[in-house]
Structure formats: structure tokens, C-alpha cells
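Record pair follows.
FIRST:
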Amino acid sequence: MVVIFVQRERSEFHWNSAKNLYRAWNLAPFSETMISSIDFHKTSTYMVTASDDDSIRLYDVATASCLKTINSKKYGVDLVCFTSHPTTVIYSSRNGWDDSLRLLSLHDNKYLRYFKGHHDRVVSLSLCSGGECFISGSLDRTVLLWDQRVEKCQGLLRVQGRPAAAYDDQGLVFAIAFGGYIRMFDTRMYEKGPFEIFSVGGDLSEANVVKFSNDGRLMLLTTMDGYIHVLDSFRGTLLSTYSVKPVAEASTLDATFSPEGMFVVSGSGDGSTHAWGVRSGKQVHSWMGIGGGDPPVIKWAPGSPMFVTGSSELSFVIPDLSKLPAYSIRK
């Protein structure tokens, strides 16, 4: 695996291309391993990745170093995310016979808790930033609500398709997307059902990921047919839709907002990465990856202009957003 830190460069839209200019630190031998998940800790410089070689890697972004590699050969690893503690993560399995979630201490490689309840692959995982709760969605067509301190799930919602679920940044609301709609739930009264249901413009293909912008005003939803929908999270108005190559059934189309919510960066079914302006709806840059056609995983670093893409490489990209007029006005 190669970690690439991309330096700033001038281009028509002032976005960097990992193919044109970069410095690389070989933190691990290159392989055909594919990264399946990336997360940043919100108050430290740590980043964690999950790979299909059944490993979890902890990085310190400040020093461009891999601090630790932990193998999960028995259970496999698919999705991973930090808890509030910088060396504790929750991750899902990939072995096909045990679909439990696990709370793992990276410090001493010790399991702290098992969360059993799903009966098929977990395809969505989101932690509530305001507490100990998290939510998971599975191909068994259930969404489970959890408390990290308790092994038994605290709530169950049944859906009619592959679910994508996410908390907003304040942890007051969570969204569940499937079947062409996004359903909004109040975390304190989710048992009463959704308080709003938003349409995504007739796209009935399987939901992949749903995410909120940092200020909670926007949402995005990606689908298997290669669409990225951006909505007003209060009114449900569909603001824009971007189109990329569709993804395979076993893959996930990932996308993320920039910190101020002015841009969306998405993967594609052909392995490329694209940047879009939310206000204009236009593409501002694109570049090809090296993931062999698999869509990259994408994550913005908290409070930073840097985002990371993961395929068979980790690419740290710093676009020069200050050169974009829309960004300058927003600032």
C-alpha cells in the first residue's frame, strides 16, 4: 500500500490531480489490497483504514506514518469508524458467516464488546458525535440502533431494500435512505417513525451512502446507478444531481462534502474521482485513480482542506479552494 500526499498545483480549476504531482511515502509494501473504509478522529491527528486483506491500519497524518497494523483474519474487516477515543474503533465483519460489529482497542488489540443482531453484511455504519450511540444498516434489511456500552441493540427499524444510514453532525437527527427516498428520524422519538420523507427525483436504484454536510443544512445520497443527489436537509428540495459511471453490485459509490459544504467529491464506477460545485452544479475537476475500476473511498479530514481517497493507494489531496470564486465569497 502506498500513501500519497498530493502537493498544491495550479490548474484551470485549481484542483490537484494525483496523477500529475505528488510526493509518496511508502508506509507499507504496495499490493493489490483494496481499502474499503477510511475515518478520521475528530480531535486528534489519527486516521484509520480498513482493507480487504483483513487488516486495520492506524495512521498519524501529522507525521505521515503508519503507527500500527492490526489483522482481523478470523472475522475480516469491512467498515471502520472511530469512537470518541482516538485509539478505539468500531468495525464490521467481512467473513460471510459472522455479521457482528466489534468495539476494538487499537492500543492493545483487545475486543471490548461485541454487537450481535445483524444476519447479513453491514453496509452502513455511522456514529453519533454527541454521545455513545451508533447506527448500522445491513443487507438483511434492518437498521439497528446501538449504545457502545451495551451489547444488545437499543432499537430496530425494518426497511424494504439496502439501507444507507447516517447521523447529522449534532446527533439530533438520523437519515435512512432506500427505495428512492430519504427518511428523517428524530433520535429521541424514532419509534414514532420518520418525521419527513424526501424523494430523490425518481432514482429507484439501491442506496449506497447518505451523508450530511458539517452544518447539517445539506444531505447527499449516492446510488448504485451512479447518481449523487444533493438535497436541502430541512425542506427536502433536490438541489442538484451528478452522474458518474454505475458501480457493481458488490461495490459502494462514495462521496463527501467539503468542510464548508460548497463542494462534493465523489468516486465513480470506473475508479475515477470527481469534484462538483454544489452551487453551480458543475464539475470542477476529475482525475483517474489506480484502483482497477473499483470506486475509491473518500473522506474529508475534519477542519482541513485536505481529503483522502482510498483504493489500492491512499491519496491525500489538498485542492487550492481559495482560488475558486464561490469559495472566496462563502468565506
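SECOND:
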Amino acid sequence: MKVIFAICFFSLAIFLCLLPPDTAWSNPPPPSSGDRSQQEDRTSLQPPFGDDLLPDIDTLMKPNYLPWGPLTSGPFFTGNANTVPVGSFFIRSAWSDNLMFGQGLNLSSMTGESRIDVGLMKNLEMDVVVPVGINSQNSAGTNFQRITEWGVGDTVIFFRYNFLLENDVYSLWHRPSLTIEPQFVLPSGKYTELSPTANGLDQMGNGTYNEGLYLIVKKSAKPFRLFFMVGDVVQNPTTVGANYASNNVTFTPIPCTPTGQCQSGRFDMVDGNLIDYSFALEHVLNDDYGLGYILEIVGQTQTGTSLVFGNATVPSWSYLWVAPSIELKYPSTRRMAVTWSLGVALPLYQSNIPQMYTPFGMATVWYNGVFGYRGE
């Protein structure tokens, strides 16, 4: 079944990549008055590092330029609908720490993600994320002795295809940028043969091959930018054993029947569908330095049923966070730039998971190739 899902998602991505350009990708109209008259009309620019050998492939490769779209760090949890141009890429190091307190629990579950995004062709990019987890606990479960475990988590591979580009970056009431993102998760993290003395902290993955599909929306209204992302992830069943935790958040007891008879040893586990949703408002205060602030609303819900595999054998859960952050770009040249951001996610609502407070930050190194401007 997982093979069928993978084939379907890849087929969808390839089909959309082969669609011919249409008016949805036409150049945006130039500013008409006021602030717009002072902006540089980048729709008429040649690539920043122009090359006479490239004009024949402009239609296939050259991105559409927007008259306003400064490079910033951007939202932490919410994806960006604009894609990386061909020949450009960025490398990102992002860290977040789920801090859980109360009811005899004092747990830090830190995740560091190394990510690379590469432009494959016009409107299409490929992204690879490899996380490293560092879990530590000092609570009643460990006799108040601090224990720490670390390891590689589950690898995420996804593609972003920007099939519609916004045509006016000054007005909120014109069309937005729209992007689809098929996503695949490979179970590279440890999830079995967990040590009883580690209290589950040595688990770094779910052990499932996951397939997801996301829709990403972006709309500019200078000096603000709005981002929205929603996605559904199907998590394939797997066989697990003692000390396994569902999504490394909710510890899962060995399944028991209503009469009290419980399984022992290894057992088959089915996660419910995982629904992601987030919204971000970015206010760019200074274009040159990518200085600004962002307010995000972030949520996840794991349902009690899998779209494909039936009823889940682990508890359902959900949460909703508010996540303010600040951002800065420095240093910056035409060829390379570094962006920074720092923030914290605070719980608005949580169900069936411990109370969490999540500080986060990221640093991104951007490399602009021959086509330079990212159009974000």
C-alpha cells in the first residue's frame, strides 16, 4: 500500500511539473501610484548575473520577478509558497526544544534540523531535512537523575511546485501564490529495541513510512506578508515494542481489551491521520536587513482513524500554539546572504499531550545562482 501512495504522489508532482505555462504566471502589473512609483520594476530585469548563453532556456528556467519581495528568514513552522530558482539553494540549521513540566515530568526534547533546498527548474524545488534529536529527563520516572539520549530522527524529502504566482504585492485583494508539496518520510530514526533504563528517551523516530500532501499559500501587501499551510499525512503501520511513544509525544501503553487482557512484547501499531495547519503574519520593517517580526499560529491533530488503515491503536491528540519571532539578515551580498530568527511557541490549547513550551531559532545561508532573485 505504501508503494501505491508513493507512486501516486510522485505521479501528481510530475504531472504538474509538465503543465504548460499560462496566464497564472504572467508578470505582475507595475505600481501605479504612491509607494508603488518608487519601487523598482523587477519584472523587466535581466538575471542579476546575466549570461549571454542562457536566453534560449529562459522560459523553462528563469523565475518571475516581483517588484517587492525582500529576502528574510521567514516563518519557522509555516512553508513559503515561493520556490528557489534554478542554480540557487539554501542550507538551514533549525533548532526547537519541547520543554515539558509538571505531574512529575521534567523533559527536554530538542530537535535540530539540517535542511537543504535546491531549485530544480522554474517553479520547482526539492528539499531534504535530516533531524537530530537530543532528549533529556530529570523526573520521578528516572528517580530524579538526569539521563540524556541523542540520535538521528526520521528523514523528510519533499518537493514544492509553485503553480500560481501572486500578481500584485501591494494589494491584499489580488490573487495569492499557491504551491503544492508532496512529502515523504523515511524511518531513519531509532524506534525499536529501546532501553528500559532510558525511559523512552532513546526513541528518535516513529518507524513509519509516511506520505503527505500540503497546500501552501502566500500573499503580500507591502510591508506585510501572509502565509498559510495545511496538510494531511498518512502514517503507515509498523511493528513496535516496549517503551515506544506515538510521535515521540504521547507514550503508548501496550493495547488492552475491554476485559483487561493486554498484549505483551512487540505489536502492530497504527497511527491516525496527522493533520497540520499553520498561519503566519510577517511585518518587514527593513528590506535591506531583512528585519521584521512574525506571528504564527501552529496546530497539529492526530485523529483516531487512518484514512487508509482503519482505526488507530494509539491515542489521538492535538495542540494549538502561538509562536512570535523576530528576524534579521546579516551579512548580505548579491551572491550570498545569511538570515537569522529567534522565537518561542506558547500553548493555546493542548489535548492528550503534556504541557509544552518551545523556544526555537534558525540560521540560513542563501546562495543566489545565475537567476539570483528568489521572488519571495
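COMMENT: Confidence is low (pLDDT under 50) at residues 1-7, 12-30, 37-47.
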